[in-house]
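Posting for a labmate who doesn't have an account.
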Amino acid sequence: MDKKLLLVGNGGHAASIIAALAGTGWQVMGAVVAPGSPCRRHKPTRVIGFEQDLPHLLVQADGVLLAVGQIEDPTPRIRLFQWLQQLHAPLITLVAANASVAETAQLGVGTVVLQQALVNAYARVGMNAIVNSQALIEHDVVVGDHCHISTGARINGGAVMGNRCFIGSGAIIGHGVRLGDDVVIGAGSVVLRDITASGVYVGQHLS
């Protein structure tokens, strides 16, 4: 029997999570959203409550997953994640059935690895992170908490990034490169040098 999963959020990221659930043993029981959230024409799942309803809905769920996306600014996800921790929500870590995570890799609580992504040997990914579809995290990479590795991004072996980083779609982080906290790398960028200062970086061959 499938376990019941409660989603917090019901937008595009929720749709990606639901698509990744096939074959994982989880069944979505519904979503909790913020009052006044914008209505999507096609909702990924049914809304069964608002954020203030979370405490009594949590007792009905076997697991909870934050389904609010992150584009550059991680603040909304961090706020909700910390609130779920305070509520002692049964946060899970999700790996899509067609994604690959090495046995020696480590994933933090609340992290999702979506379809066809790869997390290779001895990589470490922190809490509340998104490893999006077809992203690659190579061997010995360290990814901090609350990061988003976007679709098709490539993080090469031994690279290290701090907390709250955003790596845009198709970006490449070179072997052994170190990124500090709060670094945003634009889509398609190629990073070949360390970046320690927070900020937004866009371009080819940032070296």
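Reply:
Got it, the structure tokens are right above this. The chain has a mean pLDDT of 92.
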